[in-house]
Amino acid sequence: MKVNMLSDRELLLSYLEGDEISLEALIRKHKQKVFTTIYLIVNDRYTAEDLFQETFIKVIQILRSDRYKEEDKFLPWVLRIARNLAIDHFRKHKRNTMINGEDGEEILKKVEIADVNREDQLMQNQTCHQIRHLIHLLPEEQKTVLVLRQYAGLSFKEIADITEVSINTALGRMRYALNNLRKMILEKQLNLQ
Amino acid sequence: MKLTFTEQDLIRYHYGEANQEESQAIQAELERNLNLRLQFERLKFVWDQLDQFKIDPSEETISSILDASASHLSNVEPLD
User: Fold this and answer.
1) Which residue has the higher pLDDT, A105 or B39?
2) What is the pLDDT, as a whole number, of residue A25?
3) Using an 8 Å Cβ cutoff, are B15 and A167 in contact?
4) How far off is chain A from B57, nearest CA to CA, in Å?
5) What is the pLDDT of residue A115?
6) Residue A133, SS3?
7) How many CB atoms sit inside 10 A of residue A159's CB?
8) Most buried residue among A25, A51, A79, A90 by CB atoms closer than 10 A?
9) Across chain A, what does the average pLDDT equal?
10) Which residues between 73 and 112 in chain A have a beta carbon less than 8 angstroms from any beta carbon of chain B?
């Protein structure tokens, strides 16, 4: 049977029996969701590549130490690891780049612009670039809920637990995020295909 | 079952977080209530845009993970 016809559970068992092809199949199957989630949290392609690698190295280590619980679904479990690593990085990065005052703000702006330009070269799909840009214009609280629900696939209950708010608040933030995005798309008359 | 639904109800419905009974009620209401349908379409417009944002890691990154699994990790202590 071809590996791409196997379930996550079958691929995991096969990998643990020594079949490296099964690991590759698992990574390729889920790479987009995992990478997009990391990328939207850290907002830097190179860092996202590092954290993606770190995520799967951790996955492999846990699998090999026989600590994976089968009742955990594979993708949500991987996303949880990815999200935690990305959020840890984001927190550290945020602390390190905390600059006050007008000059500092200017420096940050320049750094951000340079970063966006570098991303432009890497990101071939213009629509992706526009959407990513709009997502990052959202207030942090709204962006967090949007990324965790839309891309990481967490439930509102899980998001509420992580962000220490009620489910209703998480849902309210999602509603604001969606409405704000809609307004921005229409105001900027973006030609999103 | 209530017959008026909020945007938050529609959001939970879209993400599959409404229970079966609620989903069926929302579905039925969407079919007969134009205002609710328009509200849902406005949200769907954004979801459709968001769905387009998908990016992949580089092949080099995937290769590095596979190399690590095949070689280095077999010599590395598992996590405590």
Assistant:
1) B39
2) 95
3) no
4) 6
5) 52
6) helix
7) 23
8) A51
9) 80
10) none
How far apart (Å, rounded) are the C-alpha atoms in residues A188 and B11?
A: 24
Confidence at residue A119, expressed as pLDDT on a 0 to 100 scale:
53
Note whether A171 contacts B12, CB cutoff 8 Å.
Answer: yes
Query: By CA distance, what is B58's nearest residue in A?
Result: A49
Residue at B2: amino acid letter: K
Q: What is the pLDDT of residues A131-172, one digit of tens each?
A: 888 999 999 899 989 998 998 888 999 889 878 899 999 999
Q: Whole-prediction pTM value?
A: 0.72
User: In the predicted model, is pLDDT for residue B76 greater than 80?
Assistant: no
Angle among Cα A41, A47, A50 to the nearest 5 degrees reads 115
What is the C-alpha to C-alpha distance for residues B11 and A155, in angstroms, rounded to an integer?
Answer: 11
Distance CA A112, CA A99 (A): 13
CA dihedral of residues A67, A69, A75, A81 (deg, nearest 10): -40
DSSP string, chain B: --S---HHHHHHHHTT-S-HHHHHHHHHHHHH-HHHHHHHHHHHHHHHHHHT------HHHHHHHHHIIIIIHHHSPPP-
Chain A nearest-CA residue for B60: A49
Kindly provide the residue ranges of all beta strands, DSSP E only, lying in A39-113, ordered along the sequence. none
Crossing angle (nearest 10°) for helices A167-187 and B34-51: 80
pLDDT given at position A66: 79
End-to-end CA distance of chain A: 38
Residue A5 pLDDT level (bands cut at 50, 70, 90)? confident
What distance, in Å, lies between the first and last C-alpha atoms of chain B? 50
Bigger pLDDT: B74 vs B7: B7
CA atoms B11, B14, B18, B23: torsion sign: positive
Question: What tokens appear for A114 in the block?
Answer: 């340079």
